[in-house]
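Practice problem: Diacylglycerol kinase
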Amino acid sequence: MKDSFLGKRIRGGGYALKGAWLLVRNEPSIQVQFAISIVVTVAGFYFDITRNEWMFQCIAVGMVMSAEGLNTAIEAIADFVHPDFHQKIGHIKDVAAGAVCIAAFIAIIIGCIIYIPYLQAL
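Answer key — structure tokens:
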């Protein structure tokens, strides 16, 4: 079972969960995103948002947190490959951070589209 297809998938899932836990436990940027995800989840229940709004909100949260995780991995690899400052490594890190910025900006737009009408109705 250990080396079977299913066994490998289960083991891979364990590694993925370990990586997600390490991100939430050790990375301040992910901790901020995680806190924001809790706030918008509570807001979703408070305002009783629609099923479609939940889907868009979950996609937005997942997109930002995934981008943040990939950015963290890219930065760790870049630092491992070239620990000293290097202009190209700096460029790579900036581009990875830019991807997170784009994802976060789109998530903010989605949040505004979802929540502004509910806030106006108060």
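Discussion: The CA atoms of residues 21 and 69 lie 11 Å apart. Students who identified this feature from the tokens alone can consider the problem solved.
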